[in-house]
Design brief:
6-stranded mixed sheet, alpha+beta, 47% helix, Butyryl-CoA Dehydrogenase, subunit A, domain 2, 2 domains, Butyryl-CoA Dehydrogenase, subunit A, domain 3, 4-stranded mixed sheet
Amino acid sequence: MLEDNYASRISSDNRIVYLNGKKVDLILEEPVFKGAINKIKSYYRLQEEKPEVHTAIDNNGLRYAISLMLPKSQEDLQKKRISYKEVSELSYGMLGRTPDFISSAIAIIASNSEILGTSEKANFSQNAINYYEFCKRKNIFVAHAAINPQIDRSKSIGEIDNKYSGVKVVRETDNGIIVSGAKMIVTLGAIADELLVFNMPGLRTGDEDFAVAFSLPVGAVGVKQICRKALNHTELSRFDHPIASAFDEIDTYLILEEVEVPWDRVLVYKDVGMSNAFYDKTNARNHTGHQGIVRGLTKAEIVTGTAIKLAKNMGLDKFPNVLEKLGAMTTSLELMKGAIHLCEYTAKVDDKGVYSPNFLTIQALRYHFPQWYQTMVQTIQSFAAGSMLAVPHKEDFNNHNASMLLEALNGPLIDAKERCVLLNLAWDLSGDGFGQRQQSYEFYHAGDPMRIAGMHYRDYNVEICNKLTDEIICDSLI
């Protein structure tokens, strides 16, 4: 069973993970991780239950995860979208970094690996191809570590006097390179098989020691991960926290201490231009972005469904202002679907016949969706209002207060217990730390919205806009 293979791998590699100040000795038994691990198991289970949706077959007859498929048509992009959607529904869109996220990038990086080039030390291009084939054969969960700790943003990373300002090359060996340093916000890194370590664009001349990209097992010697504070409520029931007790997409702070990376795992080596091109010029952004906006749709759907259920069962759905708010949510869903289809329909085809979703369309949605999502969450807050702050504990329905609560909280459209669960769900999504992290994630996981908008304008073809405006001005000057 694929899910059993995954569980066996992550529990037997001597990984070093710290949670709440203590080393986690049994990854599979840690309550904070269990929910997310179960979701990843479900990802693998889907491949066995619905192989026609979640897998592809290569020319050698190898069946592999469809997220690693290189799309050769719009239909292939649609197939990947269908898989992304079903995977996202496993977590209601709340796990943004499931295995299909970075796998889509690994595939296209391999396809465009000639960009990476070669050196006398290693054939970086071939390394990318080999790693892609390795991921196909092993069906592993690769997380990524790309964000450098924000220590002093007024300086380039090479100017910062702090050995944890990023991951840098310490020295070379005959076998590979020795790296040390840190990366932050390594989402689900604690329960992944491997890490793809690279930089987002932005390095400058003088940052050469940091200009690296490579892969390594999570359990490699010298790799340590320190988890942020957990946001799931493992001690409480699904009644009290319908989502936030089920799982948390734990983020970690990655520390590398004298880690040896073999030459055949190195993808970029002390090359600022190549480091900056790694995620963009290979079209990796296009493919992870495709997965991301599909996943975002599922998240918007669960929030919209919660708002609709609140409005209906609390007697609010007859008021015009409430209907307008619900309509704002449903129209946003349609616009999201339209953008997803548009990025596929206007996909760019390279000289190898590989289709990459239109990045400008993806970025347009990435800019607007966080604002839509924030409004959706605020709508839930306005519907639930103080009611979600006055929900009894599940056990109060099991003591001498039960009969009173069942009567007092019963409504004409919903019974007391279901009402409490619904309000608790509203709190998880809009008020609890779990929900607040989800909002922050949507605003910043793809980059600063201000930069996204500015870059979109810079790259957008405004010729038709200028033409129409110039026509009016010219006609008016006659």
